[in-house]
Structure formats: structure tokens, C-alpha cells
Design a protein that fits this description.
The protein is α/β, with parallel strands linked by helices and 296 residues long. The chain contains eleven helices and eleven strands. The longest helix has 27 residues.
């Protein structure tokens, strides 16, 4: 008979297609994931997932049980969320997901505020560009730049964030300030990689400087900021972070560019006191840091 670990292993590899990605999702080592897969196949006496040159794929037997395994997972996760939602303690772990730079500059303020009144609550801060699932309890609270619609998720807008064009003084001495009429011709830019190019800030930057040469692609805001400060090119960066980096100069633009900050929690866990306390701390941090998030 399959147990919960077997189902978890099967679904993780089926979803992610590789042992390494599945291991990261379940927070175990790749060797542990490999042993679990061997154990799974030994228990069922059949191959459910087969290795191919491009990763693992479902066999006919794996495809046959996928829907039932997913239903079992949904039921188990619903049970976990119900238990977590009924937990009245102001202590324990709360998992929060957000992009790295926002987590470092803003959410740490909220964590400090939280621990001043609720020292028994521990935060697991997951910094990831991916949208982690609240339903699968990959996180308890998600903070994202823009509204997100997810099944059974309660979301609310908690603030706004300003972006601006930045350069180093050395870059501006060499290339001059960008002129919108030239569409960035003669300039170099630092921008996100293609998997994030459809975000509002990336679209704005690409539209403003379509003729500029891309000097660096990087999805890490920290890498972008440091590269722009070193004179690699122009960058479109969140003001709350870029304004703290020595050597960065904000280049005036004709219009402000804002992104909304939204926070979401699964409806099954939204009334848990520790999750409510963390949400209030995040909201307080965003409110407290409004001057940095929306500078003049």
C-alpha cells in the first residue's frame, strides 16, 4: 500500500520532471529523492516514472494513477490547512514567500516588528521568483508585485512600489542622459531575462529603450543594481532598494512607474492567529516604509 511519502514523491517528480527539481520542492537531497523513487517502484512492483534524456515522464501506469494521486494530495492538504487554521497558538512557523529584494529591504522590517510582540512565531522566508502555491502549503502567505488570482485565496492590495531608471555617474559621463526621442540608441541597458520580460516594469523599460543594446540579462535585482552601479548600463530598478546603493543616480523620467503590492493567504488558514499576526506585521512594515516605496 502506498503511503503519503510515496504519493508526495510520485507527484513531485511528475510535476517537475527531474530528481533535482523535485528534491528542491520537497526540501530533500537529490540522493534521498532517488532512493524514494526506487522505494516507490519496489512497493508497487511497476515503473510509474521512467527516465528519458530530457527528464522523467509518466508511464502508462503512472498516467493511470495520476488523477487519484492528485485527489489524495488535495485531501491531505485540505486536512493540513484545516488543522493549521484551527491552531490558536501565537507561536510556530509561518512560511512567507516574496521576491528576494523586497524580502530583504521591507519584510525584514516586518519580522523585527513581529518579534517585538510575538517572539514565539518563527518566519520561514522563501525568496523566489516563482509563484509558490498556497493551496499546496508551499507557503502560508504570499507577497507579490501585482494582483494574483488563485483558487480559494484571499488577496488584498497593501501598497505601491515605484520604479525608476538608474545609472552610475561614470556611465552618464560616458554616454550622457538617455533621450526618449532616440529610443535608447547609443545606450546600454541591464534588464531581466526573458522569463520575466512580461512584468509591467520590464515591459515599460523595453518599450522606452527598444534600440538600446542589452549589456546584461539578470533576474536578480541585487545583481542588476550592482551592475548598474559599476557602469554596465542603465537599469530599471525599485526605488526603495536602488536609492540605498552608493554610486546609483536616478535619471528623471516623464512619468512615474508604479507596481502594486498584494498579499494573499489561503482561506482555510486566514483566521489562524499566528498567520494573522504575520500579515499585520507585513502590512505595518509596508505602511512604515511608504516613504521609501513611493519616493518623490
Amino acid at each position: 500500500m502506498l503511503d503519503w511519502d510515496d504519493i508526495h514523491t510520485f507527484l513531485a517528480i511528475a510535476r517537475h520532471g527531474s530528481l533535482s527539481a523535485a528534491a528542491r520542492a520537497l526540501k530533500v537531497s537529490q540522493s534521498t529523492m532517488s532512493r524514494r523513487l526506487d522505494h516507490l517502484h519496489g512497493r508497487v512492483g511497476a515503473t510509474l516514472l521512467e527516465r528519458t534524456p530530457t527528464g522523467f515522464r509518466l508511464t502508462a501506469g503512472g498516467s493511470a494513477i495520476l488523477d487519484q494521486a492528485t485527489q489524495m494530495e488535495d485531501a491531505a492538504l485540505a486536512l493540513e490547512r484545516t488543522i493549521a487554521g484551527d491552531d490558536q497558538r501565537l507561536e510556530g512557523i509561518v512560511r512567507v514567500t516574496a521576491v528576494e529584494t523586497f524580502a530583504a529591504h521591507i519584510l525584514t522590517v516586518g519580522i523585527a516588528l513581529l518579534h517585538a510582540t510575538h517572539p514565539g512565531i518563527s518566519i520561514e522566508l522563501i525568496t523566489d521568483n516563482r509563484s509558490l502555491s498556497l493551496a499546496r502549503r508551499e507557503a502560508d502567505i504570499a507577497v507579490r508585485l501585482g494582483r494574483f488570482d488563485a483558487h480559494e485565496t484571499i488577496v488584498r492590495k497593501i501598497g505601491d512600489m515605484a520604479f525608476g531608471v538608474y545609472a552610475s555617474s561614470g556611465y552618464l559621463d560616458r554616454f550622457g542622459a538617455p533621450d526618449r526621442s532616440t529610443a535608447g540608441e547609443g545606450h546600454r541597458i541591464v534588464r531581466v531575462q526573458d522569463d520575466l520580460v512580461d512584468t509591467p516594469d520590464a515591459r515599460w523599460f523595453s518599450a522606452r529603450f527598444p534600440k538600446a543594446e542589452v549589456a546584461l540579462f539578470a533576474n536578480s535585482r541585487e545583481v542588476q543594481m550592482r551592475a548598474v552601479a559599476q557602469g554596465v548600463g542603465l537599469g530599471f530598478l525599485p526605488c526603495y532598494a536602488a536609492d540605498t546603493v552608493d554610486g546609483l543616480v536616478r535619471v528623471p523620467t516623464s512619468e512615474p512607474v508604479m507596481r502594486e503590492i498584494w498579499m494573499g493567504v489561503h482561506r482555510d488558514t486566514r483566521h489562524a492567529p499566528r498567520i494573522q499576526a504575520v500579515q499585520m506585521a507585513i502590512l505595518e512594515a509596508v505602511t512604515q516604509e511608504t516613504g521609501r516605496l513611493r519616493p518623490r
